[in-house]
Amino acid sequence: MNPVNYLYLAALLFTIGASGVLIRRNAIVLFMCVELMLNACNLALVAFSRMHGNLDGQIIAFFTMVVAAAEVVVGLAIIVSLFRTRHSASVDDASLMKL
Amino acid sequence: MENLIALLVAAPLLGAAVLLCGGRRLDKAGHWLGTLLAGASFAVGLALFADMLGRDADDRLMTQHLFSWIPVEGFQADLAFHLDQLSMTFVLLISGVGTLIHMYSIGYMEHDERRRRFFGYLNLFLAAMLLLVLADNYLLLYVGWEGVGLASYLLIGFWQHKPSAATAAKKAFLVNRVGDMGLSIAIMLMFTTFGTFAFGPVLGAADETSEGRLTAIGLMLLLAACGKSAQVPLQSWLGDAMEGPTPVSALIHAATMVTAGVYLIVRSGAIFNGAPDAQLATVVVGAVTLLFGAIVGCAKDDIKKALAGSTMSQIGYMVLAAGLGPIGYVFAIMHLVTHGFFKAGLFLGAGSVMHGMNDEVDMRKYGALRKHMPVTFVTFGLGYLAIIGFPGLSGFFSKDKIIEAAFAKGGTEGWILGGAALLGAGITAFYMTRVMVLTFFGEKRWQPDADGHAPHPHESPRSMTVPMVLLAFGSVFAGGFFSIGDRFLGWLEPVTGYTHGHPPVSALTVTLATMVVLATGVAIAWAMYGRRPVPVTAPRGSLLTRAARRDLFQDDFNHVVLVRGGEHLTRSLVYVDHTLVDGVVNGTAASVGGLSGRLRKLQNGYARSYAVSMFGGTAILIAATLLMRAV
Q: Does B608 touch chain A (CB under 8 A)?
């Protein structure tokens, strides 16, 4: 199979993620869209790695996964505390630094 | 002996410090202390004079170096004194006349509760004036110059409760500042030209300096002299300065301080000799002022203001003589000394008359005082004869020499200057006769003062008449003493230099012409004021009289040109400040404010809108990168 198709898939996934970030209000959904964008990037990196015949891209993909895991931990904690204080998971409600 | 020079300045300075800081405890003895210290200064001056006379003419310069005042590399100013024949002449005049006037003031200021302070100021003046003539460099001279300006300000405004006195003091100070600026510029120019301002090096190097430089320095020095000596165009303060107590008018505004300008020009003779244009400006200033002062003096009814006009005119003679160069320097100083005697005597006489007439100054309300104040009459009369140049008296010798020297300038210039000096002598005779006749002759025109007290003229106390008598001696004999055998010429020549001028007509003709002019002036004045009764209120008078009463519109001129001009200038500057400067500043602030108001709207707190900007920005960056690659 032509590896370029993976790149198309990655672009599609990234676009879906980006649109979700821009359109949706729910913090959890937003969060998942961010993950989707990250994974689209991973896919692209791996595809490039395959196309160019070196392993750099695959190694970077591992780093991305580790960073994404750490991000999930911090991000979810923020979302939980946001929900506790404002009783809502909408990002538009949290437009001020104060309550 | 040389170590005594500092004492000349130190004695009155000590007096000023003690009297001004001592407080009321000294009220009883303050005037004696002040007079004693002025006398001490005079005594030291006499001792130094005796020592100087004992030396050869070439060896008469005495110097004393106290300490280095501003020791900076390339900029050396010393506190050092320079006593030569010229300074000596001034020292004796200042401390001698000064001591007499201190004595006079004891009586004159007897009823003034601030007499101690008055003597403190007088001592301060003496110290500053002596510093001015003893300084051995221009910077130290400037200290004395400013010092006499300060003392003059304090003394003119001594009766500061009178608004007119306070204003006059301010006016004198401000006009003097213009002249002082000239002196400070001259000193700066000297420093850039010669690298020093000590008399020796500056005046010694003057012949090797370019004429342009010398002219610039000379003109600035002339401006300084105009300010201090009340010469046109900075003459307007002297008439108003008569608001001060009469002894002040006699000492500062007649005999000594106002002659500082003449001293400055004569002292800087080497600079003027190398700058003919500056000399021409000097003689023009002198000639114009001598006529200006004389014309003003003719119309004033205030006895002190008439004498002030006369002072201006006589100093005009001195400046004229000083501007003639080596032909005239000696005679300028000689007239200065004789004028010091007779003008101080005249002012003290005027003070004595005022003392007896309830402080009335209007001569139209005097008359027939000769029987009531015999001593004042005789001393004033001798001063009068001296100033108009009656043969044999002081003014005759000194003024005649100046008129001769003016003719000796040569060419058309000589005729014009000589003619002006001659005419001035005639007008002098006129206005002084007028003062004399109005005050001492005619019938009584005495008026009760504001409180309704009729005046009871009486002779003044001994402390006032003794100085007047001594000054009258000087007025009578000084000129003859100086002139016979050319004593004064021989004394000053080593310092100022002298070349004998040859007038186009013989000296005898000049003298005779002076006598004729003088007699005409006296006769006209007698015809106008002696033979006819004098009205108590001044008649309207001719156009010239009215102009002269207003000081030939000097104040109106200053008001229109300088005050109004200054106001317009400041107003337009304020306008520019409000519109242009403030406009730029306010405009910048407003545009920054408006821009930030717009930018603030981007910071709305919605995370997704930040995300849009981020995506948009990234998209633009990528597009730009791709575009650059494609190109």
A: yes
